[in-house]
Fold:
Amino acid sequence: MVEPPRGWQMREKPATLFRRFEFDRYAATRQFLDDLAALAEELGMHPQNINFGATYVNVTLEASVPGEGIGPAELAFAERVNALIRAEG
Amino acid sequence: MVEPPRGWQMREKPATLFRRFEFDRYAATRQFLDDLAALAEELGMHPQNINFGATYVNVTLEASVPGEGIGPAELAFAERVNALIRAEG
Structure:
């Protein structure tokens, strides 16, 4: 059993990693969304779904190989997303 | 009964306007998301929810006054969103 990065939930059928991020104002939400888009472009790997409102962003990563479980690429992506939050303070 | 702008669906309980936009590649999705964020900031009015993946964006606008129906502000916002698509063409 793979251990998810801090704050992320492992979900099954299909295998995904999910985390909800909350912000105190829209400007912080927007900054996170922009940083997340830059990260996705850097890694050439796009979240399966991003769901957001003014003060929250839900991120879902799916297994890159259909039918396979969450692998090292998804775990590394999730860790990098966590690092965005730390960098933004 | 208010008529929704082209492509938008009126939904009830709570009253919302919904439209799904599809794109042929991530770069077009990203352009639309950036333009939508700029529009929201210009109008000081943020969609209740935006839900997107690599090639689609679902936009939900809620009535700005809780308990009220969709009003002129939401209809005008939806028309402006439609105009983004035409401008990006």
Q: What stands out?
A: The radius of gyration of chain A is 13 Å.
